[in-house]
Fold this sequence. Notes:
- The protein is an all-alpha fold.
- It has helices at 2-23, 29-47, 52-67, 75-106.
- 22% of the residues are buried.
Amino acid sequence: MRMLASAVLVMESFTVGFALLLAMKNHSGASLIYGATIAILLILSAGFLKARSGWIFASSLQIAMLAFGFVLPAFFIVGTLFVGLWIAAILVGRKGEAIRASLLATRPPDA
């Protein structure tokens, strides 16, 4: 579950970084700093997913991604897509971990 969620966070970070390249011409420095901060925090939060607080922090960054839509209106759509991917990563990851645990439980011990 953690690997799938980390991939989503890193993809989000790259997407924000590329969006900043588009926003440089038409937007203020404050909005660019906001976007760069989000991009850096997304990459850092991928490393914090070992703890429960890291999952909460990464989920709160999803709201910040949606709020970036006020800087670049297209990010309302992109942010919604990534929130969907984030939710899917959590749900699919939990299901995959449950299947893996059941397979490991039914495997005969090596002797």
